[in-house]
Structure formats: structure tokens, C-alpha cells
Amino acid sequence: MTLTHILPSLRASVPNPLGRDSWPEFTTTSIDDVTVAGVSLSCLAEWCSTPCVHTAAAVIPGTGGMPSPTETASVIVTRVIQLNTAADGAIDIWIDARLTGSPVVIGELRMIGRTSTASDARARIHQAGESVGALPVPELVSDLRVGDLLAIPCQGATRLREVDPARRHLADDDGESPWSAGMCGR
After folding, report:
1. Please, what is the Cα angle at 118 between 43 and 145, to 5 degrees?
2. What's the rounded Cα separation, in Å, for the pair 133 and 177?
3. Residue 79: how many CB atoms within 10 A of its CB?
4. Sequence-ordered strand ranges (E) for the chain
5. How far is it between the farthest Cα atoms of the chain?
6. How confident is the model at residue 10 (pLDDT cuts 50, 70, 90)?
7. pLDDT grade for 18, boundaries at 50, 70 and 90
8. In sequence order, what E strands does 89-130 have?
9. Total structural domains within the chain
């Protein structure tokens, strides 16, 4: 547990720390954003819409962020499309991305795009597309709103068509790079 969890008011002046081994290389945080290898994830969502994916080199575990020469990691940026507070006090959150095809590190999920000093609450993430069980999130800001952005790190390279239900039909049989279309990996 960190100081920003104990005293949420600190989030207005101190970035919430992240588990460096779970995020791609050169990941930094600010009070309202995550930047991966120089790319602001809030800006990425603005440029490409959501869901979107950013991939970079993974870090070698235990090195404090040294990039791996062979492994990759990704971050999925998704938008909250619906919220509901359940009887058990947990927040049910529906997002516009699918997470089942990606090895997400759900404990590292964080809100980006705005600063919140609200306390943390338990949450459950409901994915877009096929109905699958909700993913439990131990701690997420309790004042989440429809339209808020969430960043979720993944192990390995995650492709956009794996997380975006509208693009699941796109095949990669032609051997082209997913970024050759010239539009944010679409």
C-alpha cells in the first residue's frame, strides 16, 4: 500500500506509483496520465479513439525498468461506457474493449485523463463483446465516471483486433504489419 492509497488527496500533487515490471519500457506517470516510451496514453486515446493499444519493449523484471532485448509489453487504453454500484459496494464498470484475449495485469489498471482524490473502491470490469465473467479489480478510484479512460498493461504484444470488438473480423493473413494501414494500428 502506498501513500496515495492511504491519503488519496496526495494524488493531486504526487503521481500514483506503478509496478514497473508490469509496464513497457520507459513508462512514467504524472498525476493524470501515463506515458510509455514518450507517448502520452491520454493523447493516444484522443488521436486514435478507444480502445487503442500501445506496444513497446517489456522490462527485465527486477532491473528497475531496463528494456528487454527480446520481450514486448502492451498497454490497452479503454473508455468507461457504463457504471453501476452493486449492493456489495463494488463498482461494476463496462468498458469498450475486450480483455480476454490478452494477458492483462488487472491489478495495475489505472484511470488516466483526470486527477481524482477520491478513495479507492473494489470494482469489477465488464468487457465489450461476448459475455464473459467480470474481472475483479482490488482498487480503483471510487468517483469513476462514464467517459473516463483506463490504462491496463499486458504481457506480450497485444493487437488492436484482439481488444476491439468492431475489428475482430479483420484477418492478418496478408502478412502486412498492423500499422501499415497508416491509422494508429487499425
Report:
1. 50
2. 32
3. 20
4. 27-29, 34-36, 39-40, 52-59, 67-85, 91-95, 110-112, 120-126, 135-141, 149-155
5. 52
6. low
7. confident
8. 91-95, 110-112, 120-126
9. 1
Question: Please, what is the Cα angle at 92 between 79 and 115, to 5 degrees?
Answer: 50
Per DSSP, the three-state class of 116 is coil
Q: Round to whole Å and give the CA distance between 95 and 38.
A: 25
For residue 144, is it within any domain? yes
> Looking at residues 149-166, what average pLDDT do you find?
91
Q: Where in the sequence is the domain holding 32, given as residue range(s)?
A: 3-159
Residue 64 confidence (pLDDT): 83
> With contact defined as beta carbons under 8 Å apart, do 115 and 11 qualify?
yes
DSSP helix/strand/coil, 11:
helix
Tell me which of 17 and 185 has the higher pLDDT: 17
The pTM of this model reads: 0.84
Helix/strand/coil for 54: strand
pLDDT of residue 8: 63
Whether residue 169 lies inside any domain: the answer is no
Asked, for residue 125, whether it belongs to a domain, the answer is yes
Q: Which residues contact 95 (CB under 8 A, 6 or more apart)?
A: 51, 78, 79, 80, 81, 125, 126, 127, 128, 150
pLDDT for 186 equals 42
List of residues 6+ apart from 83 with CB closer than 8 A:
91, 92, 93, 94, 144, 145, 146
